[in-house]
Amino acid sequence: QVQLVESGGGLVQAGGSLRLSCAASGSIFRLNAMGWYRQAPGKQRELVAVITSGGSTDYGDSVKGRFTISRDNAENTVYLQMNSLKPEDTAVYYCDADLTRWEGLRTTRDDYWGQGTQVTVSS
């Protein structure tokens, strides 16, 4: 079994900062790419940021220059530092992990999602 546990969401004023964390635990053989997505009410889920196992990053256009994704491979954790927050950043933020896990004596690759954490930015 694998779990992704997110933390760090909350309420912040426009221009403020928040840091999200997502820790993966369980029968993990290797964490591949990890990312953050968000979904606002009435909108589709969209990519916020992604980071590969080698540390390469990519960001959604709306957050470039304001958000930074990073990871701690020793702790199986990915972070999202969010600065200069805007009301339009309000959404539920989901962690996603492309990982290889143990299944008995073999390994299998799967995609896992966290439960989501609410970020609300007030104007």
Question: Which key phrases capture this entry?
Answer:
123 residues, 11 strands, four-stranded antiparallel sheet, mainly beta, single chain
Poorly predicted runs: none
Q: Determine the strand fraction and express it as a percent band.
A: over 45%
Q: If you compute it from the alpha carbons, what radius of gyration comes out, rounded to the nearest whole angstrom?
A: 15 Å
User: What is the count of DSSP helices, taking H or I runs of 4+ residues?
Assistant: 0
Taken from the alpha-carbon principal axes, the silhouette is elongated
The profile of the biggest β sheet is: 7 strands, mixed
Derived from helix and strand composition plus strand pairing, the structural class reads mainly beta
What distance separates the N and C termini?
41 Å
SSE topology string: EEEEEEEEEEE
Helix content: under 10%
User: How many strand elements?
Assistant: 11
Mean pLDDT: 96
Oligomeric state, counting identical vs distinct chains = single chain
Model description:
There is one protein chain. This protein is mainly beta. The chain has strands spanning 2-7, 10-13, 18-26, 28-39, 46-51, 57-59, 67-72, 77-82, 91-103, 106-113, 117-122.
Lay out the secondary structure.
Blueprint: E1 2-7, E2 10-13, E3 18-26, E4 28-39, E5 46-51, E6 57-59, E7 67-72, E8 77-82, E9 91-103, E10 106-113, E11 117-122
Parallel strand pairs: 2-11
Antiparallel strand pairs: 1-3, 3-8, 4-5, 4-9, 5-6, 7-8, 9-10, 9-11
